[in-house]
């Protein structure tokens, strides 16, 4: 699934102003699993406790700690973090332990027919499944939910046909149990099922997506979204990733509709006003990758240089908006073919824009579904940032065609194998296609830093998190699985080198194609290719949560002898406390110096808690940079003397951009953890007043936004506003509002970034210019450049009132471009008037805003300091409705962004109490992370408040 969902929640904050163990492998693959709790030795209890046969793994060279697993004891929930336990107040729990499907029966091939009804929003289905019975049984258990099973019959060469005497549906287990009068003999048989279902608007299973057609009429498309566990909403199936099968799919649809599935159409059979489309047989694949789309679409097509037919499907009349994605896709496929040394295995691939879509995109094999904003490009109305994001998302989903689809994780515990790797590879391919994007520098802001922030919390989780009930899966579609996963793969890529990395990837994909894998399989392949202890090194990064802090001090050895670095590793904690537990990593360490900033003079692996490293050929005045290129997944804490040696190199820009960026982000992390003061960092940032690099400014901007959230409701808010204006003044003056000849893609992004910051600072010149441009745009005199629209919309609304609000709503209602609707609706939260912010929240829940977008409109108000309490109260008051319409990713994102910016213990207690009383399955970890963050904010503000007040007033 797309990494872009987390990108979708980036709302600028208008706050200023208001090695595999074969024995375990055998257990995991051959033993039917009962419960899936991981034993973490909580306090003793009287009742018996079942747990999955998956103990804490111990690898050579370190002790793997339990990390975040949990169980309920009495009225408490215990979280195992490191080797210590943190007692948390109990969150709502599932009433019974989860069981995976029994392995007595497994599917081999599905023959599936669906007949949807566009009038009643229902569908009829029939399936004939070739099954393998491993031991005689009188019942078959498979997944089904929200379906009506009319009939089930089993037949075969050696058994007489028999109908199920009883079909028992379990809503709690999301299963159907088919019971038979006599045992079904061991062997290969056929299971026939007739079933019916509803086509809802919930964006899961087989659902309906509403749009306005070319005639101006309301119309619907029928779309599937099955990841993680919603294929069972469309057809009875063995809905686990390891239970792969092949599929023959047929659809009976109105003849004026386009019908798509994973494979090309094999035959068409007219049936009056309907047509039956039968598709070619799929490769062996997991149920979550099956896909169907039925609706009215145009398309553009081309063939990649390696002969794959690529089509991009768009709403009717908008096929030109698919040309950019088509260009990207036709270049990506041959790039991946060469990179993996394995051809794309299907004859075609379709990319299709869906009006209502909960995630950013979904990698269904051969039929990739996208939000309109992550696929369509309107040359006049799409910003440079949006085009770049589309390239990344297309690259991400097509990477999954190999890594995820061809080779699939065995269970959701290994989700990061799909998402972390695809996130890494999307940057590889975009760097190849669009080198002008400097995308690997952007990766540090986009993925690496965000993963570090989340992973510093006590309530983080390991990359390889033990997933129990499928209800927990949504919680791990987060920065750890995607961004930490991608970051440690980037670190590994650097450690073993490009050639061995590619060789190992080919070996991994070739050996396991059409099969399922564990994390250890990947380490085995890369270790064999590189002859390095990949499994030993990388298991320290995947099986324990968190990451190290490298503390560095330097001792000169005299002229010509260089310097001796003393480096010590410890677990970095967001609150600055000493972590309990036996944390230790094997850390690839690189070092550069001012003598040759682009060259690594030392490259080693830190295996001990403390080591000494000799750095040759440096003087006392030279800077020494640990982690050049910001590749290692750790924080670096320098001595004060070493840190100050960087200042001249920052000012004259001889320190490379990635190192300037990493340096300030590490320093800010130390501020939040209480290792240094916020004031000292504000002073240090002044060295960047003449900075010209977009990526460095993006990192600075993220710091400024974070501080604005912290300080937005303090008496010295205005002083911080003046500080920010001064820091931005030179780059603002240099860039201006209009692009110049010879400007680069990054210049465009930088202008948009700086103006977006200025939009929230009540700057008179910015307000005047923004008003002029918006007025001209509204009148139709001059089209406002897409890259400036968000900044201008926010500026005029923040400085205006009801009239400006109504003007933006008019623009919203007049456009049919989803990107423009997004831009406008996410700007509404910038309003300064509380009455307007109440209108924003009401608008968010209205029928004018698609369900997939409501969350981000609410968030736009909540990140405004004037709207923070308002949005939280709105959430609580409307909880029944919100809990009903938001599921999975959308609900977890809403909870996160509504709560994590509070700055008081009282709010922490309030959030904690609310979610103890209101069940929100799938959000438990997110709630704990938010509560922890609130308390960190409160301590931070209390710690630095007096010094900030003195400095800013």
UniProtKB/TrEMBL annotation:
Residues 324-541 form the Peptidase M1 membrane alanine aminopeptidase domain. It is an enzyme of class 3 (hydrolase). Its cofactor is Zn(2+). Belongs to the peptidase M1 family. It is found in: Cell membrane; Cytoplasm. Its main location: membrane. It comes from Dendroctonus ponderosae (Mountain pine beetle). The record marks 482 as: Transition state stabilizer. It catalyses: Release of an N-terminal amino acid, preferentially alanine, from a wide range of peptides, amides and arylamides. Keywords: Aminopeptidase, Cytoplasm, Glycoprotein, GPI-anchor, Hydrolase, Lipoprotein, Membrane, Metal-binding, Metalloprotease, Protease, Zinc. Residues 623-935 form the ERAP1-like C-terminal domain. The active site is at 397 (proton acceptor). It is a lipid-anchor; GPI-anchor. PANTHER family: PROTEASE M1 ZINC METALLOPROTEASE (PTHR11533), PUROMYCIN-SENSITIVE AMINOPEPTIDASE-RELATED (PTHR11533:SF174). This is Aminopeptidase. Residues 106-289 form the Aminopeptidase N-like N-terminal domain. Zn(2+) binds at residues 396, 400, 419. One of its GO terms (biological process) is peptide catabolic process. Binds 1 zinc ion per subunit. GO terms for molecular function: alanyl aminopeptidase activity; metalloaminopeptidase activity; peptide binding; zinc ion binding. InterPro entries: Aminopeptidase_N-like_N (IPR045357), Aminopeptidase_N-like_N_sf (IPR042097), ERAP1-like_C_dom (IPR024571), M1_APN-typ (IPR034016), Peptidase_M1 (IPR001930), Peptidase_M1_aminopeptidases (IPR050344), Peptidase_M1_dom (IPR014782), Peptidase_M4/M1_CTD_sf (IPR027268). GO terms for cellular component: cytoplasm; extracellular space; plasma membrane; side of membrane.
């Amino acid at each position: 699934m797309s990494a872009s969902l987390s990108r979708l929640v980036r709302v600028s904050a208008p706050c200023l102003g208001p090695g595999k163990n074969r024995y375990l492998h055998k257990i995991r693959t051959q033993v039917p699993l009962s419960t899936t709790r991981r034993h973490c030795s909580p306090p003793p209890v009287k009742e018996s406790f079942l747990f999955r046969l998956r103990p804490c793994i111990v690898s050579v060279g370190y002790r793997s700690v339990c990390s975040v697993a949990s169980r309920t004891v009495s009225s408490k929930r215990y979280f195992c973090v490191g080797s210590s336990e943190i007692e948390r107040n109990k969150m709502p729990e599932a009433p019974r332990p989860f069981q995976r499907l029994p392995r007595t029966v497994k599917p081999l091939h599905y023959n599936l027919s669906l007949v949807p009804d566009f009038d009643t929003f229902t569908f009829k289905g029939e399936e004939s499944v070739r099954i393998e019975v491993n031991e005689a049984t009188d019942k078959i258990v498979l997944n089904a939910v929200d379906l009506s099973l009319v009939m089930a019959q089993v037949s075969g060469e050696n058994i007489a046909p028999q109908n199920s005497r009883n079909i028992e549906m379990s809503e709690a287990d999301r299963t159907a149990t088919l019971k038979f009068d006599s045992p079904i003999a061991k062997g290969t048989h056929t299971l026939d099922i007739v079933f019916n279902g509803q086509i809802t608007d919930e964006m899961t299973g087989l659902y309906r997506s509403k749009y306005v057609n070319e005639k101006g009429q309301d119309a619907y498309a029928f779309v599937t979204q099955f990841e993680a566990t919603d294929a069972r909403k469309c057809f009875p199936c063995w809905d686990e990733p390891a239970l792969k099968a092949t599929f023959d799919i047929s659809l009976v649809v109105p003849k004026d509709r386009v019908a798509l599935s994973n494979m090309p159409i094999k035959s068409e059979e007219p049936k009056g006003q309907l047509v039956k489309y039968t598709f070619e047989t799929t490769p062996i694949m997991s149920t979550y990758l099956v896909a169907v789309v039925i609706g009215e679409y145009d398309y553009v097509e081309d063939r990649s240089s390696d002969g794959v037919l690529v089509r991009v499907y768009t709403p009717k009349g908008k096929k030109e908006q698919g040309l950019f994605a088509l260009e990207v896709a036709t270049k990506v496929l041959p790039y991946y073919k060469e990179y993996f040394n394995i051809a794309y295995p299907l004859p075609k691939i379709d990319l299709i824009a869906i009006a209502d879509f909960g995630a950013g995109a979904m990698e269904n094999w051969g039929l990739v579904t996208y939000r309109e904003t992550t696929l369509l490009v309107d040359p006049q109305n799409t910003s440079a940032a949006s085009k770049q994001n589309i390239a990344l998302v297309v690259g991400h989903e097509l990477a999954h065609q190999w890594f995820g689809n061809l080779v699939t994780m065995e269970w959701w515990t290994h989700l990061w194998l799909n998402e972390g790797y695809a996130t890494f590879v999307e940057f590889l391919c975009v760097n190849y296609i669009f080198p002008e994007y400097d995308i690997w520098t952007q990766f540090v802001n986009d993925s690496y830093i965000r993963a570090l922030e989340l992973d510093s919390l006590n309530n983080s989780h390991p990359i390889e998190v033990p997933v129990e009930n499928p209800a927990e899966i949504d919680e791990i579609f987060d920065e750890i699985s995607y961004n930490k996963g991608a970051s440690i793969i980037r670190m590994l890529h650097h450690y073993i080198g490009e050639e061995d990395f590619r060789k190992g990837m080919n070996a991994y994909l070739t050996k396991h194609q059409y099969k399922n894998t564990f994390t250890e399989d990947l380490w085995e392949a890369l270790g064999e290719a590189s002859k390095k202890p990949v499994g030993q090194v990388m298991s320290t990064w995947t099986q324990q949560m968190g990451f190290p802090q490298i503390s560095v001090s330097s001792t000169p050895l005299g002229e010509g002898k260089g310097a001796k670095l003393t480096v010590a590793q410890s677990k970095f904690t967001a609150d600055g406390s000493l972590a309990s537990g036996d944390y230790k990593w094997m850390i690839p360490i690189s070092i550069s110096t001012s003598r040759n900033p682009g060259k690594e003079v030392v490259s080693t692996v830190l295996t001990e808690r403390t080591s000494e490293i000799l750095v040759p050929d440096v003087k006392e005045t030279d800077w020494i940079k640990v982690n050049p290129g910001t590749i290692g997944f750790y924080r670096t804490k320098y001595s004060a003397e070493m840190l100050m040696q960087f200042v001249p190199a920052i000012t004259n820009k001889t320190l490379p951009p990635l190192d300037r960026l990493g340096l300030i982000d590490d320093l800010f992390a130390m501020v939040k953890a209480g290792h240094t003061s916020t004031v000292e960092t504000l002073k240090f940032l002044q060295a960047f007043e003449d900075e010209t690099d977009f990526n460095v400014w993006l990192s600075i901007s993220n710091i400024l936004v974070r501080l604005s959230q912290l300080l937005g409701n303090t008496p010295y808010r205005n002083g911080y506003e003046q500080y920010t204006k001064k820091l931005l003044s030179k780059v603002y003056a240099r860039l201006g509002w209009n692009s110049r000849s010879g400007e680069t893609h990054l210049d465009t992004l930088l202008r948009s970034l700086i103006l977006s910051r200025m939009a929230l600072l009540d700057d008179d010149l910015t307000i005047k210019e923004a008003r002029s441009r918006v007025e001209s745009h509204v009148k139709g005199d001059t089209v406002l450049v897409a890259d400036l629209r968000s900044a201008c919309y926010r500026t005029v609304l923040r400085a205006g009132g009801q009239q400006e609000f109504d003007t933006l709503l008019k623009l919203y209602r007049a456009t049919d471009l989803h990107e423009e609707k997004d831009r406008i609706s996410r700007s509404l939260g910038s309003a300064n008037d509380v009455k307007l912010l109440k209108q924003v929240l009401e608008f968010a829940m209205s029928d004018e805003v698609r369900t997939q977008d409501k969350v981000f409109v609410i968030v736009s108000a909540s990140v405004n300091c004037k709207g923070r309490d308002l949005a939280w109260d709105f959430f609580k008051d409307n909880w029944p409705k919100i809990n009903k319409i938001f599921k999975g990713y959308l609900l977890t994102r809403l909870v996160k962004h509504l709560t994590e910016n509070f700055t008081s213990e009282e709010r922490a207690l309030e959030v904690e109490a609310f979610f103890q009383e209101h069940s929100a399955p799938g959000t438990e970890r997110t709630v704990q992370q938010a509560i922890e963050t609130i308390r960190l904010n409160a301590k931070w503000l209390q710690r630095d408040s007096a010094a900030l007040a003195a400095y800013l007033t």
